[in-house]
Amino acid sequence: MIIELRKKSQVTIPKEVVDELNLQEGDHLDVSVKDGVIVIEPVAVYSKAYIEKLEQTVLRLNEETSEYKIGPFKTVEEAIEYLETSEEDSQKNE
To answer: Which residues lie below 8 Å from residue 35, measured CB to CB, with a gap of 6+?
Structure first.
């Protein structure tokens, strides 16, 4: 597909590509140059607090399960649900 560079260096991603990658308005994209080629990749942006909580959760994998205050989780969805709860909600459940 050929697209045109517009004013202010803007480009439009073709609908076929947007649909194939299931992109939505507001999604974040990383733009880089690799070997002279422009690469645009969808990325997920998370808060620093979420990343810290994820790091703490992953570090628990080496603990004995009897030492867990939370978990172990039976499914990935259950772990993600925990990670997406606020710190206040997590403390209420302990």
So the answer is: none
3-state SS string for the chain: CCCCCCHHHCCCCCHHHHHHCCCCCCCEEEEEEECCEEEEEEECCCCHHHHHHHHHHHHHHHCCHHHCCCCCCCCHHHHHHHHHCCHHHHHHHC
Q: Classify strands 28-34 and 37-43 as parallel, antiparallel or unpaired.
A: antiparallel
Residues of the chain with CATH 2.10.260: 7-43
Name the DSSP class of 37. Answer: E
pTM of the model as a whole: 0.53
| Domain 7-43 fold | Pemi-like Protein 1; Chain: D (2.10.260)
| pLDDT tens-digit readout, 32-87 | 999 999 999 999 888 888 888 888 777 766 666 666 666 667 777 777 788 788 65
